[in-house]
Amino acid sequence: MIRQFLTQIRMLKNWRKNLKQDGTRVLVYDGKQKYVTWPDPPPKDDIASVARYVMHISEFGSLATNSTHKGIEGYPFVNIFSVSDGPFNKSTGTPYFYFTPLELSVIDMKANNKVSLTVTEAQSDFCSKKGFDPEDPRCSHAIFTGVMEKIEKDTEEEEFARNALFSRHVEMSSWPSNHDWFFGKIKIQHIYLLDFFGGAQVVDVEEYFAANPFESKKKD
Amino acid sequence: MIRQFLTQIRMLKNWRKNLKQDGTRVLVYDGKQKYVTWPDPPPKDDIASVARYVMHISEFGSLATNSTHKGIEGYPFVNIFSVSDGPFNKSTGTPYFYFTPLELSVIDMKANNKVSLTVTEAQSDFCSKKGFDPEDPRCSHAIFTGVMEKIEKDTEEEEFARNALFSRHVEMSSWPSNHDWFFGKIKIQHIYLLDFFGGAQVVDVEEYFAANPFESKKKD
Predict the structure, then answer these.
(1) For chains A and B, what is the number of CB pairs under 8 angstroms?
(2) How does the average pLDDT of chain A come out, rounded?
(3) Domain for residue B218, yes or no?
(4) A196-B122-A59 Cα angle (round to 5)
(5) Domain containing A24: what range?
(6) Given CB 3.0 to 4.6 Å as the disulfide criterion, which of A64, A80, B179, B215 pairs with A116?
(7) Residues in domain CREG-like beta-barrel (chains A, B) (predicted)?
(8) Which of B139, B213, B133, B41 is nearest to A171 (CA)?
(9) Are residues B192 and B157 in the same domain?
(10) Between B122, B136, B197, which is nearest A123 by CB?
């Protein structure tokens, strides 16, 4: 209880320090705090770039696993995780996560690492400001399916994952140190994008990784 | 193509008409438009009421199914849907959906109707305004697991579901009529709530349905 209380005090101090009046999230980069407004999305028909864009600007995603938990064994199970595919100025397309083995979905993934991740423009105020319903296809969302992999400790990739996540989720560095945190990433095998009328489109995985979320080769 | 274009024009007119300058969504009720600001959440230790609250205020949720789609058969699959458990002044606790048989997850559910739904306070600006990271446990989210059921046509329940959804998702009534839309609901079998430090808590399903999202028996 005391540890929980101290953690709460630390987190409270942390967010007060980092909060802007309008609620904009702080993105820390290279030790300096920056407030970032994302550029407009790429043209709708450049589906690889749009998928990269929605991934990169997303602060969190919904991660589905195959449940191992009592009463719902074998059911699909969906949970919320903070996510980052890189610090604000470096998108990789690969979703990184910060996990503790105590967590429900992490327990599931130990038994079966097949996962699906959805990120959506509806999670910011982008869609509501445009007047798009969350299910309106123009409120873009991308569905990534693949396998979750653990990132080895003390590697360059771990350092990248840490910076990708901690620079965009400032409170993470203050999360309880006794929870055996580690980093994970999805090895993407399949991508669907919904960004316009006419149904979901399959995005080629290679084209996705070759695309740029902010510079499209196509014109709107 | 012409039909898509006409649909787009209709939707465009629809949202322009209903948009407030600050991007607040319009909730229509009894034919009159109302702009609603939700009351504060119930006390954290009243987990049944908090779960009802997060469900009721949510505009969309992440729905997980067991995939039947090419290349990802048997993988968990998560997708975004607009949701409503009732019009703004009547919460039932049951999540209702508006589906077309053409949709990816709907095709999955035809083969296997086991599903999981997550709704989170992170989807509004509630958490970012408080300075809570989306994965911060105080940014409450609820995970419902159960089976999806189709609602029979021309029943009282269908009328309720239609009003629940259309009153809070104003553009739904203009969605293309040739898509064989129908209503669905989750028969909830299991509920997890994450709303504070210390891990997820199981919410008793009966207590959940007996609770009130806006009137707690407990004091904060």
Answers:
(1) 180
(2) 85
(3) no
(4) 65
(5) 1-37
(6) A64
(7) 42-209
(8) B133
(9) yes
(10) B122
Question: Do A127 and A198 belong together in one domain?
Answer: yes
Please indicate, yes or no, whether residues A21 and A122 belong to a single structural domain of this protein. Answer: no
| Mutant choice from B80, B171, B197 vs A, greatest count of A C-beta within 10 A | B80
CB atoms within 10 A of CB B132: 19
Hey, are the CB atoms on A115 and B141 less than 8 Å from each other? Answer: no
Determine the length of chain B: 220
One domain for residues A24 and A68: no
Of the candidates B18, B67, B80, the beta carbon closest to that of A145 is on: B67
Task: Tell the residue number behind the tokens 């997303």, with chain if given.
Answer: A58
- Interface probe for A, chosen from B20, B54, B59, B77 (most Cβ of A below 10 Å), is B77
pLDDT at A29: 62
Q: In terms of domains, do A128 and A176 share one?
A: yes
Confidence band of B209 (pLDDT split at 50, 70, 90): very high
> Which residue, chain included where needed, has tokens 């989720």?
A169
The predicted structure's pLDDT at residue B178: 82
Query: For residue B74, what is the nearest residue in chain A, using CA coordinates?
Result: A114
Q: Is residue A215 part of a domain?
A: no
B169–A135 CB contact, under 8 Å: yes
Q: What is the DSSP letter of A21?
A: T
* Residues in chain A closer than 8 A to B143 (CB atoms): 77-79
Sign of the Cα torsion A137, A140, A144, A150 reads: negative
How close B26 comes to chain A (CA, Å)?
Answer: 9
Predicted complex ipTM exceeds 0.90: no
**Hey, are the CB atoms on A7 and B197 less than 8 Å from each other?**
yes
Q: Which of B11, B64, B135 sits opposite A64 (nearest CB)?
A: B64
Nearest to A116 by CA among A150, A146, A149, A82: A146
Is A130 within the bounds of a domain?
yes
Q: Where do we find the tokens 């919410």?
A: B203
Picking from B11, B74, B134, the nearest residue to A80 by CB comes out as B134
Run means of pLDDT, 10 residues per run, chain A, 220 residues: 57 46 52 73 92 92 96 96 92 97 96 96 70 77 97 97 91 84 98 86 97 77
A48's tokens? 């690889």
CB contact under 8 A, A7 and B80: no
How many Å apart are CA A117 and CA B61, to the nearest integer?
A: 13
Sort strands B114-120 and B201-202 into parallel, antiparallel or unpaired.
unpaired
